[in-house]
Amino acid sequence: MQVIPLAADSLGVRSMATYVEAGSLRLLLDPGASLSPRRYGLPPAPEEEEALGRAIDRIEAYATRAGVVTISHYHGDHYRLEPALYAGRRVLAKDPRRMTDRHQGALGRAFWRALAPQCALAPAEGALIEAPDAVLRCSPPLPHGDDAGGFGFVVAVTVDDGRRFVHAADVQGPTSAVAAAYLARERPDLLYLSGPPTYLQSQVGRRAVEQSLDNLLRLVSETGCRVILDHHAVRDRRFREQLRPAFETGRVVTVAEYLGHREACLEADRPLLWARHRRAVGQHVAR
Questions:
Q1: What is the mean pLDDT of the chain?
Q2: Which of 68, 155, 198, 223 is the most buried (most CB within 10 A)?
Q3: DSSP secondary structure, 61-126, as one string
């Protein structure tokens, strides 16, 4: 099995886009990428815009290889309304008619209206694809965050060719006991999580972050899996300090580390990036 993250927060953009080759299956998971329009009261820095362009190019290039595309939910960093990504392919997408919030429901219905004529589109929840040499199966709806489901629900994807990879977009730590139990039952060898959202602690509460970290540590202990931890987790400049127990297991890495790249958590560093640009402009004017 080949698991290739295509774009991620530790590479400069909001994304969990991933390409997977398992046996004869060629899969593109959550082919979206975006930037936060405002963070720290600032718009995206030029470096972020450049990273987004590279991310979109990479996603589009790998889409040409894929026979199946999955959409976990309808936040803008997890899908794109771009017909070329889906045309002629089998697409498993979160059902926008059930277990979703109003905003995502509207976006999802628009996605289905636009894409249904272009591809073989079906609800992802509980979907199963069995090839002779690999299996793809989708979860039931899992909470995006805590069990209350205030941010809607997502669909996780398991790919199994003898080695088992689970792509669990936006379950966060996981925060939810339901999501944690589901992931433990899947017994992943490699698990890709969005991570505890420590940067939102003032909104979600310290207890939710602690529960996320506890569930993550329990998953690693019970399954022995390796974990790619990114997305929400690395939007906090102090994420390594905040999530030290996870990284101290030796089983947890960011996408950048997984790929052997230098981390570029550009959103978290936005104030530093803009300060650098202001200094450069000031020096140019001074000349």
A1: 94
A2: 155
A3: HHHTT-SEEEE---STTT----GGGTTTSEEEE--TTSS--HHHHHHHHHHHHHHTTTSEEEE-TT
